[in-house]
Amino acid sequence: MPTAPKPEILAAFEAAKGFMPVREGLAVYEAAVEAGRLGLPLLEVGTYCGRSTILLADAARACGVTAVTVDHHRGSEEQQPGWEYHDPETVDPELGLMDTLPTFRRTLHRAGLEDHVIALVGRSPLIAKIWNSPLGLVFIDGGHTDEHATADYEGWAPHVAEGGLLLIHDVFPDPEDEFTGQAPYRVYLRALDSGAFTEIPATGSLRVLRRTGTGI
Ligand SMILES: C[S@@+](CC[C@H](N)C(=O)[O-])C[C@H]1O[C@@H](n2cnc3c(N)ncnc32)[C@H](O)[C@@H]1O
């Protein structure tokens, strides 16, 4: 099984709009390939324009599983007009609202990965409510408010299979480091406190936890 993406996949990742640094992307890929060995789907919350999805999808392809990615495609709070992470190219000119779905679809098509991804468009808690299947990996990279990060954890972490991985992005223990807040950090602490997850080394603001017990 590969531990790093092929150059063309890495190039597609680097060319894609999004927020994940290369170093963290490589760690996501490595975790996804490891989790893919369980033979279960790999799920991401927070598709945006598909940057991290490319890596999950390629790892899923290598492992013979499917990547699932969840997003309402209307952007997080900090991506709205007037905020630091806003990209005017993501606005639907007809509606005047963010819509990252068309860019995501182009990104995935260009990377040749459409056949390996199921894209679910909607609010994460609504989708989680009707999800009833074990997952090899859950990658939480959705909304960064406490409301959203907590709902993502409570909605999706229960589905991480024994031995599977829970990844949390944008974990900043120092409040000075991140202006979108520390909700992912609080979710990470909660996962560790639950006793259901054991941390394995990661990089940057990415945290990787393995399910070694029951519950959340
Ligand atoms: C930080 S971006 C994801 C970045 C992406 N993983 C990448 O590699 O570029 C967060 C995404 O989560 C989505 N999002 C935020 N809250 C959500 C919710 N409650 N349900 C579904 N999607 C949500 C936003 O629309 C946004 O596209």
From TrEMBL:
Q: GO molecular function terms here?
A: methyltransferase activity
Q: Where are the transmembrane segments?
A: none
- UniProt keyword annotations, A-Z: Methyltransferase, Transferase
Give the record's GO CC terms: plasma membrane
Q: What biological processes does GO assign it?
A: DIM/DIP cell wall layer assembly; methylation
Recorded hits in Gene3D superfamilies, A to Z, give: Vaccinia Virus protein VP39
Does this UniProt record's set of keywords contain Cytoplasm? Answer: no
Q: Which PANTHER family match?
A: RHAMNOSYL O-METHYLTRANSFERASE
Q: What is this protein called?
A: Class I SAM-dependent methyltransferase
